[in-house]
Design brief:
By secondary structure, this protein is α+β, with helices and mostly antiparallel strands. The protein contains three helices and seven strands, in the order H-H-H-E-E-E-E-E-E-E. Strand 2 and strand 3 form a beta hairpin. The relative contact order is 0.14.
């Protein structure tokens, strides 16, 4: 953001210096009946360049499945039926439970790794926004999840 601000300020300064009349150009304007400020304003304002395309702000991204945050991480839906999914401090059932995620909830995933066996799989996912792991057995994932 600092680089964008500095670049924008530098571009504005260069544009202003290119548009300011030199001493030779200012002599006829000084002899006119109008004040010098009005002449300078008339010369500068109509010829300003358009704003650069990177400076235009776009509307907020709306993800209808998860509108509470914008995520570039792959998403997984919790598929437990009756009980909540345990979030553990490490990739295995021997690690302590640090939280839960309820059935049907979307969770952002950072990466996958191997851990203890849970009903036919030993893959675990690390959560993106909370430091914790969940078993891959209880998540339905869209897209590829990179390895840790």
């Amino acid at each position: 953001m600092i680089r964008r601000t500095l670049t924008g300020g530098l571009l504005a300064t260069v544009a202003m210096l290119a548009l300011v009349p030199t001493a030779a150009d200012a002599a006829p304007a000084a002899s006119a009946a109008r004040p010098a400020a009005a002449v300078a304003e008339q010369q500068l304002l109509p010829s300003l360049p358009p704003a650069p395309a990177w400076h235009v702000r776009h509307s907020h991204h709306v993800n209808h499945r998860a509108t509470h945050y914008r995520s570039s991480h792959p998403l997984g839906r919790v598929t437990t039926h009756r009980s909540p999914l345990n979030v553990r401090s490490g990739p295995g059932t021997g690690y302590r439970v640090i939280g839960v995620r309820h059935s049907g909830r979307l969770v952002a995933l950072k990466c996958r790794t191997y851990g203890s066996w849970v009903r036919g799989t030993h893959q675990w996912y690390r959560l993106a926004h909370v430091r914790g792991y969940v078993s891959a057995r209880y998540l339905r994932v869209r897209g590829a999840v990179p390895w840790c």
